[in-house]
């Protein structure tokens, strides 16, 4: 059992969390609370609050603190009994009430609030470990205080009711966490009540290697009217992330599979198993290199390697991965969407519709662009106001090429190079408008929604054909690279203008977010901005990157497939039918049990 003498300490995102000892300066706590906690949503009467903090010395008040180094940056406090409890009178002695919950606003974006609310009910660090007689934790928040409300829900609490609080001249929402209703295993706490550790793994259309990441996902915030949908974004923390590059032989092997020319079908079966072994090897390597205990990982979300895009066919057998790692695997996500009439793509629309939507206060939609070997776009509406129904749904499609033809051209110029560093070579060349016009007449660009791209749409053989055409016209490889760079930028802008709708075109939005390694190509970013301004008839001050909104660029795509697995395992929709063309939302994926499967289970958390 935890105590103030031997507190459990969490280290997350550079912030440490712990139960404060009884001799902690209660006046310092009061001053912190007064300085950062006095808001229009939270009136603090001095004497009752000062008395509450003074009871830390007797153990009646428990305080969990968040620290950046030695600086206190957040607190959450609880006191047995309290003024609000919803069970019969004999339950009062077994209830604890959260009195104060404050975070220094200078440290927003580090999920301090969510971590504090999670810690308050953690089985090893929270109230139930400190005082086993407590079975229920309560708190109340101003109905309009969505920041605190969301932090408690993501920490595992659930909303009980909202009532007219006449003494406070407001509507008050009561939230509750029950130790019995949120029973969980010690080995793999998961579900709505606690963080779940998931590996995300994939190999993209650029065919440059296998990407692996390890993530802690915060609890799901489910929609009360449909427990298989989310009511808010989903936070996660990146613990480790790495790309394991293919050897030249491995890359050629994958490209050979993607060419779909093998006469012996057994070679494809062998490739599926072999790629599963490769994925498992990279997952095991990252776990070992990072020092993260394997037993702490609940799930692997694997996208595998796309071999065919129409229909989608991903290699990397799930059971092979599970058997070689010992960890349960969720994967093969796309067929469910296809079965519901969709393309099974773009997957990025799922991530974007959860992570990139502007807040309800925003009047503008966001255009989320991802560029890897190919490209995808999501039109993201703002979140609805709390309690209000969705009136807008995301849109999206795959515009076409990404960096694949650009990278092939770079290798033709210099076989020792993998990509055009900062776009320096492309910047030195000239766009050949004749070739660009021919490229834009490709049949892919004449498709109608829903539009999904696969490796068979822009195969290496098409690059060879266009490369030969350029040579026949006397166009240098450098000018061809400049032309391909312009092609990717222009096709995306044109697709957004054609399919974005009234919330995107004619100056309706200037909010454009770009991600992918191409963010480091300043020449491409300039050309994308120029094409968007022309096609959307708007002025764009800056193209936003993931880092600008607090999301790690290097790991987001691995996080996306970890998210797909997390949602699948928790029976939550992980495809957006308004983007894929499906007739309904689906929970896509299959589960391959690993050695840990018996110890991983859903909680009984109320939805």
From TrEMBL:
Tell me the superkingdom of the source.
Eukaryota
InterPro entries assigned to the protein according to its UniProt record, in alphabetical order: Acyl_CoA_acyltransferase, Anhydro_N_Ac-Mur_kinase, ATPase_NBD, GNAT_dom
User: Domain named N-acetyltransferase: which ranges?
Assistant: 15-180
Q: Which residues form the signal peptide?
A: none
CDD domains per record: NAT_SF (cd04301)
Q: What Gene3D superfamilies does the database record attribute to this sequence?
A: 3.30.420.40, 3.40.630.30
Q: Which SUPFAM superfamilies match?
A: Actin-like ATPase domain (SSF53067), Acyl-CoA N-acyltransferases (Nat) (SSF55729)
Q: Which PANTHER family match?
A: ANHYDRO-N-ACETYLMURAMIC ACID KINASE (PTHR30605)
- In Swiss-Prot or TrEMBL terms, this protein is called N-acetyltransferase domain-containing protein
* Source organism: Tetraparma gracilis
